[in-house]
Design goal:
heterodimer, A: 160 residues, 3-stranded parallel sheet, B: Beta Polymerase, domain 2, 2 domains
């Protein structure tokens, strides 16, 4: 094993590392955040997927779980946090409110109708709030997306 | 109890026009003239007999069609105060005309009596639009500072765009689908009525 050689594409190698150490940002807005905490805690153990290291700063985070109702007051702050994250960055929208305004879609004068109005979203997790299993599936979907990316090829190979 | 307090206030504060509102259902209260609320609160707190030393909450209520028989549109500010030494509670009310965005109704701040009034009055200002005169920190508390309007007023219209964000994006409103559901419900109701009629007729035949 020590002398063996593994041949693989650079992109695959990087993606393998990236997808198994997706660090989310410590960031919760409402009741979805409680489910997110449950997901991170011992019973559901998000760390099994390499996603348990909740970073307390956007600079060290790989993706952001928008867990909860995005009010109009909060929306510009979320945008700032997103802009502070280092590339490549991903957004997981968790729960009905972050997806599309949830129960506030018609009479919520103060609620943004979906966080995708201000920042691009990669994965939507439906539910009100979603169970931890649903969030884990969302994270795994994001991992699949990361695994299929070709960052180096897109950057260095012309007309790829 | 409300009657005694109203009498006490009338004897201590001249022009208080305190009136006991005895409710058959719900909570009774004492209505006072809005321009004397500060003196009234101070008197209730300072009196040895009552000792209302705690302000529990201040709430604003919008009555665009008036209260009861009186049809003048008003905003009512309710002060729920309590005495922890005498173990009593009372609701004080003042009524002010609704005014409009440029000309908000004015009530004296009671922050100098109970410090707890600070955030309560800010909330009342933010959501119902009552200006509290001599408030130490008169800002909005829940909505952003550049917000327009006072959301708990009955005639409140949400702004269409806030800081470049559309509040109700057209592509995210599924009102036609809702119409479809209404239509469906109507068809279901008709089908149910027809089935019921058929059942009844079948019964009659038997």
């Amino acid at each position: 094993m020590q002398d063996s050689v593994v041949l693989l594409k650079m992109d695959d190698f990087l993606n393998w590392g990236r997808k198994n150490s997706l660090w989310p940002m410590t960031f919760g807005l409402a009741c979805c955040a409680i489910e997110m905490m449950a997901t991170g805690a011992a019973k559901y153990d998000l760390e099994r997927f390499g996603c348990g290291a909740f970073m307390a700063t956007p600079r060290r985070a790989d993706f952001m779980i928008v867990a909860g109702t995005v009010t109009l007051k909060m929306a510009p702050r979320i945008k700032t946090l997103y802009e502070q994250m280092a590339e490549p960055k991903y957004v997981l929208s968790m729960g009905s409110c972050a997806n599309k305004g949830g129960p506030y879609w018609q009479h919520g004068y103060h609620v943004l109708k979906g966080v995708d109005e201000v920042i691009p979203v990669d994965v939507y997790v439906p539910g009100c709030p979603p169970r931890p299993e649903a969030l884990i599936e969302g994270v795994m979907t994001l991992q699949k997306k990361v695994a299929n990316e070709r960052l180096l090829r897109d950057k260095w190979v012309k007309n790829a | 109890m409300h009657k005694e307090i109203a009498d006490y206030l009338n004897s201590v504060v001249s022009g208080a026009e305190a009136k006991a509102l005895e409710a058959e259902v719900g909570d009774s209260s004492v209505l006072v003239a809005s321009e004397h609320i500060l003196k009234v609160c101070q008197a209730l707190k300072d009196s040895d007999e009552h000792q209302y030393n705690v302000l529990q909450t201040i709430s604003g209520v919008d009555y665009p069609e008036g209260v009861g028989e009186d049809k003048t549109p008003v905003i009512e500010v309710n002060y729920m105060i309590a005495s922890f030494t005498k173990n009593t509670e009372i609701i004080l009310k003042v009524r002010v005309p609704r005014g409009d965005d440029e000309n908000l109704p004015k009530v004296d701040s009671v922050c100098s009596v109970w410090t707890a009034a600070d955030w309560q009055e800010r909330e009342c200002y933010d959501l119902v639009g009552v200006e509290f005169v001599n408030h130490p920190d008169h800002r909005r508390i829940l909505n952003p500072y550049d917000w327009k309007g006072h959301p708990l007023r009955k005639d409140y219209k949400a702004q269409e765009v806030y800081q470049g964000m559309t509040v109700y994006p057209e592509d995210k409103q599924n009102i036609p689908e809702q119409d479809f559901i209404v239509e469906q419900n109507k068809l279901n109701d008709e089908a149910k009525a027809a089935a019921k009629k058929a059942r009844e007729e079948a019964k009659k035949d038997n």
